[in-house]
Amino acid sequence: KSCQKPVDKYIEYDPVIILINAVLCKAQAYRHILFNTKINIHGKLCVFCLLCEAYLRWLQLQDSSQNTDPDDLIRYAKEWDFYRMFGIASLEQTSFFIGIFITLWWMTPEMLKRKSDFILLLKALLLSTYGKLLLIPAVIWEHDYTPLCLAFIKVFVLISNSQAIRVTLNLNRILPWFAIFFGLIFENGVVCLFQKMGWDV
Question: Which segments cross the bilayer (predicted)?
Fold first, then answer.
């Protein structure tokens, strides 16, 4: 019913080919992964992606601060800034998802009637953030084009999020992008709110 085909062709495919097609953001591959496989790594993948993002931010924070004060070195040794970056990354991602859920619930309330619909969409969004794992090679192979690489990774994650929403709720291409756009606005709004409150976000 969701695939709108007689049979899911990916049942016979090798997992590597399915992964490659998912990286290419093919809707059928997303449908296969979400509906016809039993993957339960959503939470672990989310935490690992947030750790990658927090490490990248922490690394940039260390590079920008060339203070040789011993107290500052002790502060970095304790890694409090890393935990703060992890909290900020978690806050931003949660705000982004809330913005998406609000938009989709407002635009298509019939699609999100049951709790299971929300859970399926949340799992799909968590799985579709796998592109953040590309932050690891971006940090390892640090070069002059790192900001450009980070921008491409962000765009790739947003495209993956769009496909996940589209496949999960069986929508056209426009509404998922509208939800993602509102999610980004909501995320930036929450960050600005905390900054106005005096929090170092």
Answer: 85-106, 118-141, 148-168, 174-194
Whether the pLDDT of residue 33 is over 90: the answer is: no
Cβ neighbors of 149 (< 8 A, separation 6 or more) are 134, 138
Model pTM above 0.85: no
Residue 26 and residue 18: Cα distance in Å, rounded?
Answer: 9
Whole-number Å distance between alpha carbons of 50 and 86:
6
Q: What is the mean pLDDT of the chain?
A: 81
Instruction: Give the CB-side neighbour count of residue 83, counting CA atoms within 13 A.
Output: 6
Distance CA 18, CA 23 (A): 9
The number of beta carbons lying within 10 Å of the beta carbon of residue 190 is: 18
- Would you state the pLDDT for residue 29? 82
Pick the closest to residue 95 from 130, 125, 128 (CA basis). 125
**Cα–Cα distance for residue pair 63/76, rounded to 1 Å:** 12
pLDDT over 90 (residue 199): no
